[in-house]
Amino acid sequence: MAAFLSGFLGVGGGIVYIPVIEYYLKRLGIHSDILVKTILANSLFTIIFSGSVSSYYQYKNGNFYPKQIIQTALPGIVSALLITYLIKNGTWYNKTVFNYVFASMLLLIVTRMYTSKPKVNADDNHNNKPIYFGSTGFIAGIVTAFSGLGGGVVMTPVFTDIFKQPIKKASSISNGVIPFFAISMGIYNLWDTPEQLLSKYQIGYIVLPIVIPLILSTFIFAPIGVNISQKTSHKIIRFTFASFASLVFFKLIYELFF
User: Fold this and answer.
1) Which residues have a Cβ under 8 Å from the Cβ of 73 and sit 6 or more positions away?
2) Higher confidence at residue 153 or residue 72?
3) CA-based Rg of the chain, rounded to a whole angstrom?
4) 40 near 87, Cβ under 8 Å?
5) In principle, which of 70, 108, 163, 221 could form an S-S bond with 4, CB 3.0–4.6 Å?
């Protein structure tokens, strides 16, 4: 499911990976401050593959924008690594804070996706300046480090609703940027030393028995998501995006207050 959504929505798949990874980590008995750090690390590591496969199939379908991808990715890598460093070297970002941040961000995204009405026939060259892509990437990098979602939940709505880019172009750029974020933080997480080993099959913060099945599914379902996205109306894509974000939002609210 996560791999399919990565290709279909251009969000990296983290919106599904995070609940799955959290579930299995808790089954391993992880409930301490290391939980959030491990969720973020494993979600982003998995997104390297889902985002890369999705971006490759966007390229094969002729829906690929390398210039805008680079303009968006470079500032985001800087902001993502900075926030990741601050999280890893402190105890301030615990599970409760993570849930509040995640829920607040999802609420804004869901509201925007349900209520806004982007232009169907938007102009590819409208608001096409590097500063727009760079500023979006910088913010998306921060969101990626805090949420583990890959940044697509920020980039796709901003590109379509604020900068009036076509939804399929926005999705393609988002898919292209996500692997850059994930690779930079994935390397950091592989070489970092966790406070607690969760499995004997673990490299840094990456728990292989959790991420390998998710990665393998990417090569089957992400291409299907991209192909279906190319044939689907922008309204259905947006509705699907908002619906899945809503499900995750209500799950977080339940965890926080019940």
Assistant:
1) 137, 176, 177, 180, 181
2) 72
3) 17
4) yes
5) 221
Per-residue pLDDT tens for 143-182? 888 887 777 778 887 888 788 888 778 888 988 898 899 8
Helix, strand counts (H, E) of the chain: 10, 2
Q: How far is 95 from 102, CA to CA, in rounded Å? A: 10
Task: Name the pTM for this structure.
Answer: 0.77
Tokens of 151: 């940044």
Q: Residue type for 245, please? A: A
Question: Alpha-carbon distance 111 to 107, whole Å?
Answer: 6
Comparing C-alpha atoms, which of 99, 154, 88, 166 is closest to residue 126? 166
Going from N- to C-terminal start, the domains of the chain cover: 2-257
Q: Cα-flanking dihedrals φ and ψ of residue 148, to 5°? A: 75, 15
Residue 156 confidence (pLDDT): 80
Identify the pLDDT of residue 218: 84
Pairing status of strand 206-207 against strand 202-203: antiparallel
Tokens of 201: 């099959």
Count how many Cα atoms sit within 13 Å of the Cα of residue 226 in the half-sphere of its side chain: 29
Measured distance CA(178)–CA(53) in Å, rounded: 11
- CA 223 to CA 98: how far, in whole Å? 31
